[in-house]
Write a structure and sequence with these properties.
alpha+beta; HIT family, subunit A; 5 strands; 151 residues; 32% helix
Protein backbone atom coordinates (compact mmCIF):
# COMPACT_ATOMS: atom_id res chain seq x y z
CA UNK A 1 0.00 0.00 0.00
CA UNK A 2 2.48 2.57 -1.22
CA UNK A 3 -0.09 5.38 -1.31
CA UNK A 4 -0.34 5.41 2.50
CA UNK A 5 3.30 6.39 2.89
CA UNK A 6 3.48 8.60 -0.19
CA UNK A 7 4.95 12.07 0.13
CA UNK A 8 3.34 15.27 -1.10
CA UNK A 9 3.82 16.29 -4.70
CA UNK A 10 6.70 18.78 -5.01
CA UNK A 11 4.62 21.27 -7.03
CA UNK A 12 2.24 21.94 -4.13
CA UNK A 13 -1.30 20.84 -3.51
CA UNK A 14 -2.77 18.96 -6.47
CA UNK A 15 -6.26 20.22 -5.60
CA UNK A 16 -5.16 23.87 -5.33
CA UNK A 17 -3.37 23.50 -8.67
CA UNK A 18 -6.54 22.11 -10.31
CA UNK A 19 -8.64 24.85 -8.67
CA UNK A 20 -6.37 27.62 -9.98
CA UNK A 21 -5.21 26.23 -13.34
CA UNK A 22 -8.58 26.32 -15.14
CA UNK A 23 -7.73 23.78 -17.84
CA UNK A 24 -10.54 21.49 -16.78
CA UNK A 25 -9.87 18.73 -19.30
CA UNK A 26 -6.17 18.51 -18.43
CA UNK A 27 -6.83 18.78 -14.70
CA UNK A 28 -9.78 16.34 -14.88
CA UNK A 29 -12.19 18.86 -13.34
CA UNK A 30 -15.81 18.05 -14.20
CA UNK A 31 -17.74 20.86 -12.56
CA UNK A 32 -17.18 23.96 -10.43
CA UNK A 33 -19.36 25.78 -7.92
CA UNK A 34 -18.63 28.88 -5.88
CA UNK A 35 -17.07 26.91 -3.01
CA UNK A 36 -16.14 23.49 -4.41
CA UNK A 37 -15.36 21.47 -7.53
CA UNK A 38 -15.77 17.91 -8.81
CA UNK A 39 -12.67 16.15 -10.15
CA UNK A 40 -11.80 12.68 -11.41
CA UNK A 41 -9.43 10.71 -9.21
CA UNK A 42 -6.20 10.31 -11.22
CA UNK A 43 -5.67 6.90 -9.55
CA UNK A 44 -9.22 5.52 -9.53
CA UNK A 45 -10.44 2.38 -7.80
CA UNK A 46 -13.10 2.15 -10.54
CA UNK A 47 -14.03 4.01 -13.71
CA UNK A 48 -15.96 7.06 -12.60
CA UNK A 49 -14.19 7.47 -9.23
CA UNK A 50 -14.57 11.19 -8.51
CA UNK A 51 -13.90 13.54 -5.64
CA UNK A 52 -15.81 16.60 -4.50
CA UNK A 53 -13.27 19.12 -3.19
CA UNK A 54 -13.71 22.40 -1.30
CA UNK A 55 -11.97 25.33 -2.97
CA UNK A 56 -10.33 26.60 0.19
CA UNK A 57 -7.13 24.81 1.23
CA UNK A 58 -8.09 23.24 4.56
CA UNK A 59 -7.82 19.72 5.85
CA UNK A 60 -10.14 19.43 8.82
CA UNK A 61 -13.84 18.85 8.34
CA UNK A 62 -14.42 20.94 11.45
CA UNK A 63 -12.71 23.95 9.82
CA UNK A 64 -15.08 24.08 6.84
CA UNK A 65 -17.85 26.65 6.60
CA UNK A 66 -21.42 25.34 6.17
CA UNK A 67 -21.62 26.83 2.65
CA UNK A 68 -18.46 24.92 1.65
CA UNK A 69 -19.88 21.66 2.97
CA UNK A 70 -23.17 22.31 1.19
CA UNK A 71 -21.46 22.91 -2.16
CA UNK A 72 -19.26 19.84 -1.69
CA UNK A 73 -22.22 17.59 -0.88
CA UNK A 74 -24.29 18.97 -3.76
CA UNK A 75 -21.46 17.91 -6.05
CA UNK A 76 -21.45 14.47 -4.42
CA UNK A 77 -25.19 14.28 -5.10
CA UNK A 78 -24.72 15.32 -8.74
CA UNK A 79 -21.90 12.80 -9.16
CA UNK A 80 -24.05 9.96 -7.82
CA UNK A 81 -26.83 10.96 -10.20
CA UNK A 82 -24.53 11.15 -13.22
CA UNK A 83 -22.75 7.89 -12.39
CA UNK A 84 -26.07 6.11 -11.82
CA UNK A 85 -27.19 6.97 -15.34
CA UNK A 86 -23.93 7.02 -17.34
CA UNK A 87 -22.30 3.97 -15.72
CA UNK A 88 -25.40 2.20 -14.40
CA UNK A 89 -23.73 1.99 -10.99
CA UNK A 90 -25.56 -0.32 -8.59
CA UNK A 91 -24.13 1.24 -5.45
CA UNK A 92 -21.58 3.75 -4.18
CA UNK A 93 -18.85 4.14 -1.63
CA UNK A 94 -18.99 7.77 -0.49
CA UNK A 95 -16.59 8.98 2.15
CA UNK A 96 -13.53 10.82 3.32
CA UNK A 97 -10.35 9.90 5.14
CA UNK A 98 -9.54 12.50 7.78
CA UNK A 99 -5.85 12.39 8.68
CA UNK A 100 -2.89 10.20 7.81
CA UNK A 101 -3.95 7.52 10.33
CA UNK A 102 -7.26 7.16 8.48
CA UNK A 103 -5.47 6.62 5.16
CA UNK A 104 -5.71 10.11 3.71
CA UNK A 105 -3.43 10.42 0.69
CA UNK A 106 -4.01 14.18 0.57
CA UNK A 107 -4.74 15.07 4.16
CA UNK A 108 -4.50 18.85 4.00
CA UNK A 109 -7.25 19.59 1.44
CA UNK A 110 -10.79 18.49 2.30
CA UNK A 111 -12.44 16.18 -0.22
CA UNK A 112 -15.06 13.43 -0.47
CA UNK A 113 -14.58 10.30 -2.59
CA UNK A 114 -17.43 8.92 -4.69
CA UNK A 115 -16.68 5.43 -6.02
CA UNK A 116 -19.29 3.68 -8.18
CA UNK A 117 -19.81 -0.01 -7.44
CA UNK A 118 -21.46 -2.94 -9.22
CA UNK A 119 -22.57 -6.31 -7.92
CA UNK A 120 -19.63 -8.68 -8.27
CA UNK A 121 -17.03 -5.99 -9.04
CA UNK A 122 -13.41 -6.46 -8.06
CA UNK A 123 -12.25 -2.85 -8.10
CA UNK A 124 -11.17 -2.75 -4.48
CA UNK A 125 -8.57 -5.45 -5.17
CA UNK A 126 -6.06 -2.62 -5.66
CA UNK A 127 -6.17 -1.78 -1.95
CA UNK A 128 -5.16 -5.32 -1.08
CA UNK A 129 -3.41 -6.74 -4.11
CA UNK A 130 -1.89 -3.73 -5.91
CA UNK A 131 -4.03 -4.52 -8.98
CA UNK A 132 -6.38 -2.28 -10.95
CA UNK A 133 -8.79 -3.28 -13.69
CA UNK A 134 -10.14 -0.22 -15.50
CA UNK A 135 -12.05 -0.63 -18.77
CA UNK A 136 -11.49 2.93 -20.02
CA UNK A 137 -9.04 5.83 -19.91
CA UNK A 138 -9.42 8.88 -17.68
CA UNK A 139 -9.99 10.98 -20.82
CA UNK A 140 -12.94 8.79 -21.82
CA UNK A 141 -14.36 8.91 -18.29
CA UNK A 142 -14.00 12.72 -18.27
CA UNK A 143 -15.83 13.03 -21.62
CA UNK A 144 -18.68 10.77 -20.51
CA UNK A 145 -19.23 12.46 -17.16
CA UNK A 146 -18.70 16.00 -18.44
CA UNK A 147 -21.39 15.35 -21.03
CA UNK A 148 -23.73 13.77 -18.49
CA UNK A 149 -23.28 16.67 -16.04
CA UNK A 150 -24.19 19.12 -18.78
CA UNK A 151 -20.73 20.45 -19.60
Amino acid sequence: MAWIGATKAPAGCVFCNARDHRDDRKDLVLERTEHAFLILNAYPYASGHVMAVVNRHLGALTAAEPVELTDMMRLVQRAVGALSVEYRAEGFNVGMNQGRAAGAGIEDHLHVHVVPRWNGDSNFVSVLGDTRVLPETLATTWERLKGRLGG
